[in-house]
Amino acid sequence: MNFMQDMTKGSPLRLLLSFSVPLLIGSIFQQFYTMADSIIVGKFVGADALASIGACSSVIYLLFSLFLGLSAGIGIVISQHFGAGDGRSVRRGIANSVYILLAASCLLTLTGVVFARPILTILGTPSEIMQDAAAYFQITSAGIIAVAFYNGISSILRALGDSRTPLIFLALAALLNVGLDLLFVTVFHMGVTGAALATAIAQFASACACLAFSLKANPYFHIRKEEFRPDTGLMRRMMHIGLPLALQNAMIAFSCVMLQTVINSFGAMIVAVFTATNRIENLVNQIYIAANTALSNYTAQNLGAGNTDRVRAGTRCCLRITACFSFAMILVMYVCGRLFMSWFVTDLQVIETGARALKLISLFFLFWGALYVFRGTLNGAGNASFALISGVLEVVGRMGCAFLLTAVPFIGQWGIWLAEGVTWILVASAGAICYMRGSWTKTHLTGAGRAAKVCTEP
């Protein structure tokens, strides 16, 4: 079966929806990695154990986010060549991506394993949860190479229009993660360490299975020996797009790390509240991420083929979809906030505080969706400048607002969630301005595409 899809022709709405649905389902399954850990640990071990996972989650995201950026850069370059019909460059891009991902994963694994406790100490992690937080951080860091290659392979497959294959193996890994969580935590009583091991094992299984299937089924993965020769020009282009995206993700994650220091200052109860609300927000975020990824690949293929009008049409479709979803989620958070919080903990104070926080943050969901749409178009065009602007605004907005708002007496702890909302407004506004200026329409492949479509084969 051929899962690849040419997104340079056909209805933009139909293409984006058909591409987004597997992404959305896959993203929800991916949340099971962290949600399963949080729910099972929170229910069977306790609120302090849940807080220990939350205390290091922002730092772990910082490490993982670098691979998301590098993988996105790799995928965008490959997608542009696929849209232009240059099969040889697609294969060479896949081969050269191995060097980038391997080097980055080795460096970041070493960082996470060796410096886990010092990093958590700098963040002001409460002493009662330090041991469990450090163990979770180190074990998760040991599995970074699996995260790197799963995300790299998935990004390449999506660049070729295939959003279904990553879903299949991610779903299997999510189910494996839940099963291992239950085994290690409830049967073997391994606590937070067991939850981290379950996640690492599931990630390795997902990466290996996805790679094996791609080598067998996707013709672009049938790479000739000479195509593995390092191509500095191709890697430089991947890094030119990927590094700003990685830096953008790193700055977003860094701002979350700094926000964690504010959260930690309010004690273990607020850490537990934020951990649970953050997991719920991440579920909502999956439709925005799906729209972002679909639009990024759609944009890259169509700019490779010189179809800027199709990119604009796709952007308008995604804005309408995310706006409708955002308004629906406001209602859901007001009605079901307490129910969602009760998934994670039984402590009534944590549940009540979390439900109020969800009502507050939902008022900003419309801006959250818009920033992902504009980011998808601009990232797909390889617009490195917006990636950096976006990252800087995330840091300034999240850090500055968190410190300022929580210091206001009548706001206090609620400034944690207000800071998120203000940050989304800033980034969405910057994305809208960059999109309307139109400089994203100019890429090195624009206009080269349709004529080249028949020149090369997979």
Automatic annotation (TrEMBL):
<keyword id="KW-0472">Membrane</keyword>
<comment type="similarity">
    <text>Belongs to the multi antimicrobial extrusion (MATE) (TC 2.A.66.1) family.</text>
</comment>
<feature type="transmembrane region" description="Helical">
    <location>
        <begin position="60"/>
        <end position="78"/>
    </location>
</feature>
<keyword id="KW-0813">Transport</keyword>
<dbReference type="GO" id="GO:0015297">
    <property type="term" value="F:antiporter activity"/>
</dbReference>
<feature type="transmembrane region" description="Helical">
    <location>
        <begin position="414"/>
        <end position="435"/>
    </location>
</feature>
<keyword id="KW-1003">Cell membrane</keyword>
<feature type="transmembrane region" description="Helical">
    <location>
        <begin position="286"/>
        <end position="305"/>
    </location>
</feature>
<feature type="transmembrane region" description="Helical">
    <location>
        <begin position="98"/>
        <end position="116"/>
    </location>
</feature>
<feature type="transmembrane region" description="Helical">
    <location>
        <begin position="194"/>
        <end position="215"/>
    </location>
</feature>
<keyword id="KW-0406">Ion transport</keyword>
<protein>
    <recommendedName>
        <fullName>Probable multidrug resistance protein NorM</fullName>
    </recommendedName>
</protein>
<feature type="transmembrane region" description="Helical">
    <location>
        <begin position="167"/>
        <end position="188"/>
    </location>
</feature>
<dbReference type="GO" id="GO:0006811">
    <property type="term" value="P:monoatomic ion transport"/>
</dbReference>
<feature type="transmembrane region" description="Helical">
    <location>
        <begin position="357"/>
        <end position="374"/>
    </location>
</feature>
<dbReference type="Pfam" id="PF01554">
    <property type="entry name" value="MatE"/>
</dbReference>
<dbReference type="InterPro" id="IPR048279">
    <property type="entry name" value="MdtK-like"/>
</dbReference>
<dbReference type="GO" id="GO:0005886">
    <property type="term" value="C:plasma membrane"/>
</dbReference>
<keyword id="KW-1133">Transmembrane helix</keyword>
<dbReference type="GO" id="GO:0042910">
    <property type="term" value="F:xenobiotic transmembrane transporter activity"/>
</dbReference>
<feature type="transmembrane region" description="Helical">
    <location>
        <begin position="245"/>
        <end position="274"/>
    </location>
</feature>
<dbReference type="InterPro" id="IPR050222">
    <property type="entry name" value="MATE_MdtK"/>
</dbReference>
<feature type="transmembrane region" description="Helical">
    <location>
        <begin position="317"/>
        <end position="345"/>
    </location>
</feature>
<keyword id="KW-0812">Transmembrane</keyword>
<feature type="transmembrane region" description="Helical">
    <location>
        <begin position="136"/>
        <end position="160"/>
    </location>
</feature>
<comment type="function">
    <text>Multidrug efflux pump.</text>
</comment>
<feature type="transmembrane region" description="Helical">
    <location>
        <begin position="386"/>
        <end position="408"/>
    </location>
</feature>
<keyword id="KW-0050">Antiport</keyword>
<dbReference type="InterPro" id="IPR002528">
    <property type="entry name" value="MATE_fam"/>
</dbReference>
